[in-house]
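Record type: ASSEMBLY
Status: queued
Input:
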Amino acid sequence: MSARRYQDRARPPNLRSEDYVSGQVYRDDGVFRDELDTVLGKVWHFACHLSEVPEPGDYRTFLHALQPLFVIRGEDEKVRCFFNSCPQCGARLLGDGAGTAARLRCVRHLGQFDWSGRVEASAHSGDNAESDVLSAAPRLREIHAETKNGLVFVNLDDAAQPLDAFLGQGLEIFDEVFGDDGVEYEVFHFHRATVKANWKAWQETIVDLYHEFMHVVLRTTQMTAAPMSARDLRVYPNGHLAIGGLKADYDNYKGYSARDESAAFPGLTVDDARFTPLFPDTTIITRGTVMRIDTVTPLDPHRTIVESRGLGIKGEPEPDRLMRMRHHNDYWGPFGRNVPEDAFAAEACEKSFGKGAGRYQIIARDEGGRGQDDLMLRAYYKAWSEMTGRLAHSPGNS
Amino acid sequence: MVHNAGTRQTLREMPDTHVVSGAVYTDKAIFEDEKRRVFGQCWHLACHESELSEAYDYRTFDYIGTPLIAIRGGDGVVRTFMNVCSHRGAKIIQEPSGNAKRLTCFYHLWSYDDRGNCVDIPRPEAYESSGLKKDDCGLFEVRTETHLGLVFINLDDKAPPVADYIGAALDPFADSLGSGELEVFHYNRAVLHANWKAWQETNLDLYHEWMHVLLRRTQVGEGSMDTRVVKSFENGHTMGGGLKASYDKYKGMAPRDPGMALPGLGPDDFFFVDLWPNAALLARGTAIRIDVVTPIDEKTMLVEWRGLGLKGDSADVRRTRMQHHNQYWGPFGRNVPEDAFAAEACELGFRHGAATRQLIAREEGGKGQDDGMLRAWYAEWARRMDRSPANPTNAVAPD
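Status: finished
Output:
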């Protein structure tokens, strides 16, 4: 029962090595550099939903593994991904955010590129449009982009395996949600915030089931809505995870009401909650009537951009959309009962790990793959260790 | 004579004890060494016991990147723990102060008592297979001792007791702080953009009283420079004493009522003790001020100021005491904001090497505006850091 001596804080917990994680994974510059190269530089990264670039010329810029990138829909409807940087002089091409680009023009030398990254004649190339200089100019540097279920993924690794092989069965929990050809989804909500915490601390708020104790709204609506034994935690190759069997009693929380069954997404009942954290930085969550997609983008070991999207059904009547937005925001909006609390938690961990005060965290819960098992956290760090070549419990030792 | 780049580098005839290199304020490696050799080993003044007057009162604070919580136990003993949950590392208590029998982490509701014991883990059965037990999950305790009502912590379990560390340095406060009758009535804090030592120097440097209009009026001309005493003690602690103030020399201020003087003090007395490395206690007849400076990094610091009066003060007396305190030491007083300005002004000089050294060369036989306190402070710094303040990076002198 007793307190421990401050001097002993560096001593590892007396647990199996897979049951704890060293605080170094959150603060070490060398670990972070390795993550950029061996993890984020290799995986398929969720960039956006197709509904965010619906027309040819529509683009979205974003950062991934510290690289400025953008996706753009071409004349041929194909969505491609390029470095947001002029191949001739390095200048940024598109400002932050989203829009429609009539053309991609470098502000520095007015070089122009079409939506598929080819060099275009510009007003200033005049009669020399077909000159040798123009034909020799480099096209935009393109990286892999593939789409599945309306989700656009990109990969910085030229030798990457195909997206389907990377995901494997990782999205199976949403097969029915995405499988109805008559239903198309679209993004109705987007917000982003810079959280003062390591990027994995955010991902952990998703992967860690035990932390539902933190959220009053989950204690009230979720923890008792279905037996712990009905929960089904799954681990897939490449570090992807899923959980099913969660239920919610929305009317247990003051001010909320039970949800109309007819508003449920295909394959779901309104009280279903399912989520799948895709390794290493993306999560898709559904709550019966609405979907959330989170992406974390590290800026350095101590700061992370979190992007959060809310999705409803394309073409739905306005009252249905308003209802879906309310359902989304109750939990996941910037003033909802879930997301701001998770940000608080991630930053509270940074306050101890960021400067080395906290040394270890414990991920030792075992409930046979059900309830609030830490199985998913262990699987996440197992995949992380395999990719980085570092041990999560002792990352200084490969 | 105007210095050019050449003479700037060769102004070195001064003894090493009388020169401080700008590198002590700017060098990252020196700062890392300070964290280990200074803050990792010295007693740090955390708060006054009146701030934890009741059982289960707590105060949280950060010390060299470590979140800490000092709490008075049900047995009356003040203890300090790392304010970090043993489970997932979250900072447990966010509020600066409060009262709680249980320290419960918001994240997964793990709970600790006033002794740092882990007393509750929700749904603990899931840890059985791993062998994890509550007994293994107590908070990390930091050594805590109280001396003259001041609560000190030390990250080094092997450090000598705080009474030994302080020695005779706080004897001038024995009657006041030792009376047990004092309480904190004022607390203020600010982040200053300067190296932490630049603040401490404002409390070691008597000569800078020229900066303060208020001190020029009420202090410089009062008493005699010869009656001032600059003293140093074991472990780098120092004292400036024998100063007097004529408060009515400053427009709007009045002489202070002898009846309001704190135990052991005359109403126009002024003296101060610097506890090495980062605390200063200042007595001005009717009020006491305590400064604590904590570095955030080599160019940023947190300064905390406390004002102390008597527990039994009537409302009128307390108001007057606060007025006395604030005239000099409040956030809008004539002393403290000017010192902050000075510390930041030095930072502007040293940060990118425009200034390369400062002089602490005044000698007045331990009286007047002698730099003896500054030299004693840096002598202790040299001892603990195993570096010369004049050449802390062992830079090779230019030919």
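Annotation: The interface with chain A takes residues 64-67, 79, 81-82, 84-91, 94, 106-109, 115-119, 122-123, 126-132, 134-136, 138-143, 155, 157 of chain B (CB under 8 Å).
Annotation: DSSP finds nine helices and 19 strands in chain B.
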